[in-house]
Amino acid sequence: MTVTTWATLAALGAFHGLNPAMGWLFAVARGLQERSRAVLLRSLLPIAAGHLASVGIVAALVTATRSVTASTTLAVVGGVLLVAFGLWRLLSQRHFRWAGMRLSAAQLAGWSFLMSSAHGAGLMLLPVLVAEPVPGGHPGHLTAAPVGALPGLAAAGVHTVAMLGTALVIAMLVYEVLGVGVLRRAWFNVDRLWAGVLVAAGLVTLIQA
Amino acid sequence: MTHWTPDPTFYPSPREAVTAPAEKLAYVAAFDRAASRPDAIVVLDTDPDSPDYGRVVGWTDLPHLGDELHHFGWNACSSALCPTAPHPHVERRYLIVPGLRSSRIHVIDTQPDPRQPQVVKVIGPEELAKRAGYSRPHTVHCGPDGIYLSALGGADGAEGPGGVAILDHTTFEVRGAWEADRGPQFLAYDVWWHLTQDVLVTSEWGTPSMIEDGIIGELLLGRRYGHAIHFWDLAKRRHVQRVDLGDQYQMPLELRPAHDPTKSYGFVGVVISVEDLSASIWLWHRDSDAWAVTKVIDIPAEPADPADLPDLLKPFGAVPPLVTDIDLSVDDRFLYVSCWGTGELRQYDVSDPMHPVQTGSVHLGGIVRRTAHPAAPDEALAGGPQMVEVSRDGRRVYVSNSLYGAWDDQFYPDGVGAWLAKLDVDVDAGGLIPDERFFPHGDEFRGLRVHQTRLQGGDASSDSYCFP
């Protein structure tokens, strides 16, 4: 993978980390509820783990599939899927539902996994992954699949580290300096922007195909 | 419709909600006891700089007759900022207005002209019955994941159990009954929660047949109305604990949890004790792993000449205070208590919730006193302070005078009238006084009775907060 690829993955991670719906706001709420910075910090790890799992599955699948098909089919199918999902996010009125506030670390990771998956966080990485040259070896050779998944997992890892770092900085900033009042002014509609990025990512993938 | 930044009326914490600008308008549920004219949502001007201050400036008739409007609420509020399922870009725009008698639910749009709200959707009683199994919808709360609506009765003529229905946030369709396991709960009335602690609380009144034709003396003296509150797991939707106040404490109605999400207490008002006709306020609080209640305020009945009393009370020779509504200021400092029988609104400093200190009192109306409003000192008032609503900054309190059609007629048999008063609060020292410029009454309400008030942008009993 090129430097640009890594940088793009990290930038997308920062974008995901920025979204209050992806977890930092939940971590801040838990910290404030218990009046404990440690609770805030402890909450971010399972949130990042859930995000990693969600993104990792998609990324591993994409790179593994790509190593065995090496065709434009994946890019086309993925691109169409991405545009459709983005439009659905943009136009649908539904929102993710999760009733509880008091979650264990495992439940918190599960919440993050579902939240990331429902928002199509992994799909957003598609154009980056699809644009990568097919890994060396023998295209069409099935044994390449497990190896092929590795770049995907590495990509998800880098992405998640960037996501966690961004979330950590924002969460601490809000918790220690700004206060939650900043939400009233600064919580711009990430969902709409997010959906737009999904559609754009789909189009880029299709063009590349 | 979604927005780029959160609705400006949403506040992440009660601390910040206190800084909200003063309301310019108030919405009031008004109903025709005779059911010969439509009930209405009435709009009052609450801007002291306006030439129409204290007057009716808008009127929206409902499409049917006999709804008996009672309580109502907003489609969305500050809970939209809660982090588990955030959707901060919806609007506080629609009033969800149930007909307590008709079981119809109205969705009323306060845009584009907040003074001329429009009925945009009516959910029939059959939909509430079919989807949720309930009737007689009562309390409305904007939850983070849907609109919560308590209901007193069962479907298809069944007396119960009453419970909580969920409405979809955006389509306002009835999604279903909220409860996964209701345990021993059967009677219903109010519902509210400790949102960040996954705790939901419900209270008890009576089934439709116990209330709709008036209070039934034998049932009351037989201690058959509700006398317990219920705690639930909000996430799992399961009954956790029933806390009995004692069967002499009939009708624990309004639930007012602390707005501070880190606090685990709340107040519930009890209408009447059958032992001495007193009213009381109870505090619920945690007691190690369980919930407990402690009586923190007792308001005794006042002796009276039976000749001055309605038939129902003549045998007792006393006026019960009949605490039928309470409201807690957003900063959790002052508790307002409506004594609808004696015609008094009391203010308590509840900074130490276990030990309330009375800091204010205003008399208006009352079964015996009939205290006039200073703006119309020659008019004896019927009814008393009943529904009480507090502005977000805690500086203004609005009270209206009707309790519930059939019960108004029993306690004020020569007519309850219609009036709404605003009281100004001294938020530093405590105490409150009537605003002489704000007293819509009588013909201004066109013969309808007035019940709950909701303030534009939110009020002390409309919003819940997920951040301290």
TrEMBL record, chain A:
The keyword Transmembrane applies. Keywords: Membrane, Transmembrane, Transmembrane helix. The chain crosses the membrane at residues 6-27, 39-62, 68-88, 108-130, 150-175. This is Uncharacterized protein. It comes from Micromonospora parathelypteridis.
From TrEMBL, chain B:
Pathway: Organosulfur degradation. Pfam families: SBP56. Its EC number is 1.8.3.4. One of its GO terms (molecular function) is methanethiol oxidase activity. It catalyses: methanethiol + O2 + H2O = hydrogen sulfide + formaldehyde + H2O2 + H(+). InterPro entries: Se-bd, WD40/YVTN_repeat-like_dom_sf. Belongs to the selenium-binding protein family. This is Methanethiol oxidase.
